[in-house]
Amino acid sequence: MNEETGSKSIKDVKEQDVYMGDMPFMSYQADDTEAIRNAGRFLTEGRADVVKIEVDASFGPLVQKMARAGIPVCAHIGSRPQLSGLTGGYTSAGKTRDQADAILKAAKVMEEAGAVMLLIEAVPDELAARVVDHSGIPVIGIGAGPSPHGQVLVLHDLLGLNDQPPTFAMRMASVGEEIQRAAQEWVRASAERRVGGVASIAPRASKRPTARGGGRRKKP
């Protein structure tokens, strides 16, 4: 399943909601024409309502072209996971004055270019608050404090499926631990030859025919 068909499958479930297509690495960085075409596929084939791209101020011309083409863009600023290969792994952003100024500039440029929404990731609370105060479009936060208009979190981090989640991730379940426990128990059962036989198959609930309208049940 590719990115476009994946978003289409989700959109088919609840038509009234707004769905965002997260454009993958190298689907928009190499060439503006290719980026616009790929973004358009998210809308037409994937039925996304908005596309998200990771940006700094230099992406202003691309966002402007997308907006001119009628493509709603969510501009992802702050920490940019698609750059982790350059930074040596996932990192926060906006901790120095220069970094903070660059993020504020990117927010301003993106809004002026026609972005319909900002997503700000892993920055100090105070910086996110400044972005919200200076923006006229919705701001969504991930690890950026309580100021943004909305919040988002990676599902794996939320459910406890990631061994090394970001420090800001608020885990609401320990599904990963339960999966590991179940797998270990199955391995033990296999080693003890307690699986594979009839006894290991859960019995199905029996379904008995019910007589209706005074009729008789058919004999098997």
CATH class of the largest domain: Alpha Beta
SS field, number of helical segments: 8
Q: Could you tell me the number of beta strands?
A: 6
Major sheet: order of its strands?
Answer: 1-2-3-4-5-6
CATH-derived architecture of the largest domain? Alpha-Beta Barrel
- Cα end-to-end separation: 45 Å
Helix residue percentage: 25-40%
CATH homology superfamily of the largest domain: Phosphoenolpyruvate-binding domains
Tell me what portion of residues adopts beta-strand conformation.
5-15%
Overall number of domains: 2
- The coarse overall form would be globular
Runs in which pLDDT lies below 50 for 5 or more consecutive residues are none
Short description:
By secondary structure, this protein is an alpha/beta fold. The chain is 39% helix and 11% strand.
Give a description of the structure.
This protein has a six-stranded parallel beta sheet. The mean pLDDT is 88. By secondary structure, the protein is an alpha/beta fold. Helix 3 packs parallel to helix 5 and helix 5 runs parallel beside helix 6. It folds into two domains: 149 residues, TIM Barrel; 43 residues. It contains eight helices and six strands. Helix 3 links the parallel strand 2 and strand 3. The two termini are 45 Å apart. Helices cover 39% and strands 11% of the residues.
